[in-house]
Amino acid sequence: MSRIVIRNVRVFDGEAFVGPQTVVIEGSHIGQARDPADGDEIIDGTGRTVLPGLIDCHVHIADEAQLASCASFGVTTGSTHARLFRFAGVGGDQAVHDVEEAAEFVRDRVERDRVDYVKVIADVPGHDQAVLDRICAEARRRGKMTVAHAAHFDAFPRCLRAGFDVVTHVPLDEPLMRDVAESMAVRGMVAVPTLTMMESFARSWVMWLLARRTMDFEHSLCSVHAMKEAGVPILAGTDSHSAGVLYEIPAGKSLHHELELLVRAGLTTEETLRAATSRAARCFSLEDRGGLNRDYGRISCWWRGIHSRIYP
């Protein structure tokens, strides 16, 4: 089997930058260089970086074209999200009205749908606190991770009380205070801010008017900074979709912008890349991706030249 030998390339292994050095790609394996062999394809990697396949922790994939778009931008893994009530054929018999139905909801998702995690909208107006508490308790009892949709400030204390594992989105209406961020860190809560989506939402004049002109993207950036300072693990996610009426977030490309926004919010370059590789893989128990082994190992890998402040 012919190999690809990339010389003088910098490597981000999922945790830190190393190199420049020579790496070899052989089929689905990558490793440090051995002696070149006849038939090897030699590539000069000067000014380029090899890194694990990127992970988008919040995507909505509807077709193969979106998958191809993800692959073209180095996004090899995405955490897809479920159907929304009323908007995707979910009947009223599947809605949750009280704590008993909350238990049934979790049971059905785990036993019938074989879900990996349970996601709930925690914003107000919405479920009572008792329903959120019961959903989290039932999911924990069944060994499942819980994810909360929380796009407003008021949702975060509700998420903390219920004990969600992951919170996706970040407030536009007001920034998270230090005490909230510190409570998230103490509880071991993980954040997927989806700054790309929040920025698009704030730029939509229609949504700005509907929200009574209370949305400010700076609140989202300040919230991420507060979480980072408090030690909350932050993952990269975009909420990419192609069915938006008021705005659209393109699959794949948007994750690059998400990384730029995370840097703008105060994360270092390495922290940002970990958010889309090793840290994301650990959170979702993806043991076969998110990092590069120093010796040969089966991984999801992407390599290309990047010219931006994210990959200096």
UniProtKB/TrEMBL annotation:
Amidohydrolase-related domain segment(s): 125-291
Q: Which Pfam families match?
A: Amidohydro_1
Task: Please state what the protein is called.
Answer: Amidohydrolase
Biological source species:
Apiospora hydei
